[in-house]
Design goal:
Helix content is about 45%, strand content about 20%. It is built from 16 helices and 23 strands. The strands form five sheets. It has a six-stranded antiparallel beta sheet with strand order 3-2-1-8-7-4, sandwiched between helices.
Length: about 650
């Protein structure tokens, strides 16, 4: 160890190698930390998504079962009303109901005392035991069913309801009709005047329900639980907690606001996810209510299960990185030590140049490797440094002059498009806003508009290429549009004449995509012609509609094909429907990962909130694009225009 420190102290190669390794370690740790955070966040989101989907499927399955029970009760009720005078029919309906629904544990069709003449009790009951259905009359002096919850609840509430779990006991025999806990769906039977005369009760085994819920396991050690309306555990992997503990028991033993909040959320029939310690294990708890019964179901997923694969992979990556950095250190010491040995002479030569002695004669070096090349480069640098400084001075002055001219060109170009907003302060029936964001000093995008004899002429365009050539083409395009528009020509004729002008002697093969529109402000109609441009977006008039691209004819861009016959289109009723126009600098805007903004994201952003005004819409989309691009350089000019006619 002492020898190692001495080597680091006196050896440049060892110190350089150590710094290289330390820097590489820092870079790796930073990258590992970032990747870990991002991966952990992604895994967490996927876990939440997956567990939520599993819970939704389980709840949907239970709700389907409960709905099947309710449907069976409705079907039985219809039969009972048809044959109220037949006891034998009641037994038959009870039996057929259980036979037709294997998930049922039993079915009772029970009546008020003396409903059948002198019979104090009459309750036709059929039970399912391991696939064998038995039918009996369950009312007697030791089993006065009309005092039990499954009979009294629908009578008192005068509506169907689910009971809490219970075990149906026969006091005379000292045993239960059912060998396990069950819940019942009870439906009252009423006469035409609304008076109560009996109930239909369908039973489900809580053990069967528990097996159905417990099969839901998104992770190896995850489990499901079900709590009743009072918070009592109805289903839980720990049998000691069933029916004797509630979701608040853990909070009483080890007070935890998160656990208390979980219990309150489940009792309030809320849906969501909470992260807390369950039985001392940090877990993700996903919960959702079963509104038909007033119960709430939850899936508990230990955090160790969710991130087990991620943690194992991270440890392996750290071990590999440590061994790699250690090997890198020893290799760097050997390689750098051999490479830097001849640099002492070269360092002395560099000091002469650094001190300003450009005329001193440097020693010749006949080495044929990179160090010899570097020595000869220093000699060449000595002779050319003065001339280089002079050339640099002239180049800097020239560059400043060019930049000044480009700034003037940009100011001229910015003056060619309307910039005063709102553009028509005297008119309340026109809401228009637009903006241009150049990718370079000058832009190849354009937009323009003007009102002539109660008609609004507007356009938006994108010239092929960027920079000064595109800006010149843009200026000509804008001038031709304004000149032809002043002649009150329709959009198709404007497109045709500009195309003819650009197609002649177009040696550079430049072209421009444009969208022309003419709005009759009195009639409220829109005539338009799309020349290879991105289709505009029709924004919704109200909250029930969605943004949708405007269907446009497939015309070619201007300057591509001489003699092309452009086809126009019309919207007869354009009043009140906002129109959003843009260049491909919007949907093709890329972030650092080269992910484009895209048309789907654009439609989503435009439909995020109801339309307020054109300026708000344009600024919202510009902000969304800026957030998406982030630190990446702009790949293309960005032009936006929004229009609404009142």
């Amino acid at each position: 160890m002492k020898k190692l420190f001495e080597n680091l102290r006196h050896s440049f190669s060892a110190r350089l190698s150590l710094w290289v390794v330390l820097f590489a370690a820092l870079v790796f740790l930073a990258a590992q930390a970032f990747v870990s955070l991002q991966s952990r966040s992604s895994i967490r989101q996927e876990a939440i998504k997956g567990a939520t989907q599993v819970l939704d499927n389980a709840v949907l399955r239970l709700n389907n079962i409960l709905e099947d029970v309710q449907l069976a009760a409705d079907n039985t009720e219809w039969l009972v009303y048809r044959h109220l005078d037949s006891k034998e029919a009641m037994f038959e309906y009870s039996r057929s109901t259980v036979q037709g629904a294997p998930f049922l544990n039993g079915c009772s069709i029970s009546f008020e005392p003396y409903f059948f003449k002198d019979d104090l009790y009459f309750s036709a009951y059929s039970g399912n035991s391991d696939g064998v259905v038995t039918t009996m009359q369950e009312g007697n002096d030791s089993y006065q069913y009309f005092y039990l919850d499954w009979y009294l609840l629908p009578k008192l509430l005068n509506q169907p309801c689910w009971t809490e779990p219970y075990c149906d006991w026969d006091e005379e025999d000292g045993k239960s009709f059912e060998t396990e806990m069950q819940v019942s769906y009870c439906k009252p039977l009423t006469a035409g005047d609304g008076s109560f005369f009996g109930t239909i009760s369908l039973d489900i085994s809580l053990k069967w329900l528990s097996e159905t819920i417990s099969s839901v396991k998104p992770y190896p050690h995850s489990y499901s639980m079900l709590v009743g309306r009072g918070g009592t555990y109805l289903v839980h992997p720990d049998p000691e907690k069933l029916f004797y503990e509630t979701v608040f028991t853990e909070d009483l033993a080890n007070p935890d606001p998160k656990y208390r909040a979980l219990g309150q959320a489940m009792l309030n029939w809320e849906e969501g996810m909470k992260v807390l310690k369950v039985d001392g294990v940090r877990s993700y708890v996903f919960y959702k209510p079963l509104r038909a019964t007033g119960w709430s179901m939850a899936i508990v997923c230990p955090e160790s299960d969710i991130f087990s694969g991620f943690n194992k992979l991270r440890l392996i990556a750290l071990a590999i990185a440590f061994l790699g950095l250690l090997l890198m250190f020893f290799v760097c010491v050997k390689v750098i030590g051999k490479m830097v040995h001849p640099l002492s002479t070269l360092a002395a030569e560099a000091e002469k140049i650094a001190s300003g002695h450009f005329d001193d004669v440097l020693p010749q070096d006949d080495r044929m490797d990179e160090l010899g090349t570097l020595s000869r480069s220093f000699a060449h640098m000595q002779t050319s440094l003065v001339s280089y400084i002079d050339e640099l001075t002239r180049t800097t002055a020239k560059k400043e002059r060019i930049e000044g001219e480009l700034q003037v060109a940009r100011n001229i170009q910015r003056g060619m498009v309307p910039r005063t907003f709102p553009p028509f302060p005297e008119r309340k029936d026109v809401d228009l806003f637009a903006s241009i964001t150049p990718a370079k000093e000058v832009s190849g995008d354009l937009y323009d508009y003007f009102i002539l004899r109660e008609k609004l002429y507007f356009c938006i365009g994108d010239v092929s290429g960027k920079g000064v050539p595109a800006s010149l083409f843009m200026a000509v395009s804008r001038s031709l549009f304004r000149l032809l528009g002043q002649q009150e020509l329709p959009p198709t004729e404007i497109a045709r004449q500009i195309n003819e002008a650009f197609s002649v002697d177009n040696e550079q093969m430049m072209f421009v995509t444009m969208f022309f529109g003419v709005v009759d402000l009195q009639q409220g109609s829109l005539d338009f012609c799309n020349c290879g441009h991105n289709p505009p977006i029709l924004l919704p008039r109200n909250g029930t509609e969605r943004p949708m691209p405007l269907e446009c004819e497939a015309n070619t861009p201007l300057g591509v094909c001489q003699g092309w016959e452009y086809k126009g289109q019309q919207i007869a009723d354009f009043k009140g429907r906002p129109l959003f126009l843009f260049t491909d600098g919007l949907n093709e805007a890329e972030n650092l990962s080269h992910e484009e903004f895209g048309n789907d994201r654009l439609l989503k952003e435009l439909g995020r909130a109801p339309f307020r005004d054109a300026q708000t819409t344009v600024q919202a989309i510009r902000s969304a694009v800026a957030d998406h691009v982030g630190e990446a350089d702009a790949s293309d000019d960005l032009t936006l225009l929004c229009l609404k006619i009142g």
